[in-house]
Amino acid sequence: MNVIHLKYPHQLKQAAQTTAYSLAVGFFDGVHKGHQAVIQTAINKAQEHGMQSAVMTFDPHPSIVLGKRNERVFYITPLQQKLDTLKKLDVDTVFVVHFTSDFARLSPEDFIQYFIRDLNVKHVTAGFDYSFGAFGKGNMELMQQLSNGDYSVTVVDKQTDADEKISSTRIRKALQDGNMEQVRTLLGRAFEVPGIVVHGDKRGRTMGFPTANVQAMEGCFTPATGVYAVQILVQNEWYNGVCNVGYKPTFKNPDDKKLSIEVHILNFDKNIYGEEVVVGWYSRIRSERKFNGIDELITQIELDKQQAIQYFAELSY
Question: Is residue 170 part of a domain?
Fold first, then answer.
């Protein structure tokens, strides 16, 4: 998959295209089932008309540049993870447009000129609610009206699950609630958090439950605190596990607000400090709580472990 980074205006000359593209355009955070419908439509159009398939996405999130939020933005799929997911969907080319204040001021007409016509896009696919140009004044009806026969347009209708729109907002709410089954349904795959294994307090090892302390990639969305059935990708192999996300209230000062992600990997005994891993989240077993001593905690961890084992034994892929 070819990845082309664009920044308005000075990089456009470098991006002069001779290849014709069928383009899916959107922010696509999560690359959920609704996004996949848009992207697959663009891929199908590319195959029908002998073009290359392409996706146009934006980085960073527009709300950061437009000043609508003060808090940090956490992505369902940070950029590299989004690119990895798009590669699995067999997209030929991804245009990553750097979202700047200058880009945000582009009129719909200029957006079409610089980012559709100048890139030799011959077919544009987007969701029914996609908007573009300054203040979001452009919509897909305008995209069609301004085509002048240079490109064709497909609008993908609202994609729903349980009669409700599939959206990144809905997925974030499910993540905040720890509802990983719903997240997996809306994404079409398990929610994943990439990270690196770092040294922790090693307390789990002394209790007979060694854990991998995972430092999540910057900007990742972490699910609600609690205990989960997870899978973890280590050295290109997936393992089942049980994961605690939280602040370890049994041992820690309640004023210590550093969130930890600790995975006890089933049937695994390797030193993996420094390894890059991916945690896939499947089911929330229980909420995090404080226990009256180590023995009570060990008993509960064993119960959690058995519940995770049972979950994966019953899981049908």
Answer: no
Assess whether 198 and 107 both reside in one domain: no
Domain CATH for 262? 2.40.30.30
Question: Chain-wide mean pLDDT for the chain?
Answer: 90
Domain range spanning residue 200?
Answer: 189-314
Asked whether residue 165 is assigned to any structural domain, the reply reads no
The whole-angstrom separation of Cα 180 and Cα 6 is 35
The three-state secondary structure class of 99 is coil
Q: Per-residue b/e over 260-278, b at no fewer than 16 CB within 10 Å? A: bbbbbbeebeeeeeeeebb
User: Which tens digit of pLDDT belongs to each residue from 114-142?
Assistant: 999 999 999 999 999 999 999 889 999 99
Phi (first) and psi of residue 220, to 5 degrees: -75, 150
Whole-number pLDDT of residue 250: 58
Enter the DSSP assignment of 315: -
Q: How many domains does the chain have?
A: 2
- Judgement on whether residues 195 and 272 belong to the same structural domain of the protein: yes
Three-state SS for 81?
helix
Q: Are residues 219 and 142 in the same domain?
A: no
pLDDT-derived band at 295 (thresholds 50, 70, 90) equals confident
The pLDDT assigned to 277 comes to 97
Which alpha helices (H) appear in 6-72, and where do they start and end?
33-49, 62-66
Centre a 10 Å sphere on the Cβ of residue 157 and count the other Cβ atoms it contains.
Answer: 9
